[in-house]
Amino acid sequence: MIKKVAKKAGVSAAIVSRALNPETQGAVKPETVWKIQSIVSEFGYLLHSAVGSLSRGQFRTIGLPVNLHKDTNSGYVGNILKGILKGLDEIGYDLKLMPLKSSYSLSVLFDKQIIDGIIFTHDSYLDYLHLKTASKGGKILPAVVINGFDLMQGINQLYVNSYNAAGTMAEYVLSKGYKDVFIIGGDLENADAELRKQAFIDMARKKGIRFIKRRYVNGKFSEQGGYEAVKTVFKIEPKFRGVLFCLNDAMAIGVLRALGELGLHCPGDIKVTGFDDVSQAEFTNPALTTIRFPLSDMGYESVRVIYRILKGELKRYLRKEFPHQLIVRSSC
Predict the structure, then answer these.
(1) What average pLDDT does this structure show over 167-189?
(2) Do both 36 and 19 map to the same domain?
(3) pTM for the structure as a whole
(4) CATH code assigned at 179
(5) Where are the alpha helices (DSSP H) in the chain?
(6) Segments forming the whole domain that contains residue 32
């Protein structure tokens, strides 16, 4: 990358290296230093990260693909981000947000030194990148997907077993004697939505309860989707009184708002459960019963995994399962 800057500046790579290093910057003409720094900024590089790293072939930056419409308001991504930022602060790396506007080749991103590593907060985001290359120069790629369960080989995975976690919530709900249940989920093409739905159905079957197909409503894994799903539920069954089993907390938050507007009381009339235990879950009214995923810990660990790869300490792709925890609050 230093050669690219040198070519545009019309100077040697050695001069670029001196101009970006505070200890040798004085040996370069001020106008040349300014020109080189302007080119570095033009290319989108951070000056303090570029110093001493361009010549090593590292940019000291980790990429985070994001859906700017959804993720900026997502408690799920926000909790993961807390851990990522903590890890980056410890190793002195920067974060590059990568809007999901087009399809990228992961190998090209690394070859061009745009990033040194990449973290996916959803396995669905893998559709935006081509993972055909499982290794680079005999080394594994510094890429991690969080909560991508049972994926293909060729990427590091940190996950909570969604099927087991949903089974824990289903067992809790059904063991309390609550048999009337609507599931508020997402598109069934989504792996997590399918796993969590199936976990509930399997647990219900074990307890001799038949799940009715029409009682699965797509809440699109969002607050707005959960809000709209409640209206659908009461169109299907206007007199429904039971449990709204939400497959993430965002939908549960939207559900609680919709219930209030309909004049229904939670947990008196309708009970609600969530999934993930985002920071808002404790402060909804009523507080949300949910499944806790250690999202911040997973974000932090994702940075540590990438750093170990970059240092040459991790030689094989890692697949690590994190524990889940049932958090019982007043909504159910």
Answers:
(1) 92
(2) yes
(3) 0.76
(4) 3.40.50.2300
(5) 2-9, 13-20, 30-42, 47-50, 75-91, 106-111, 162-175, 191-206, 223-236, 249-261, 295-310
(6) 2-50
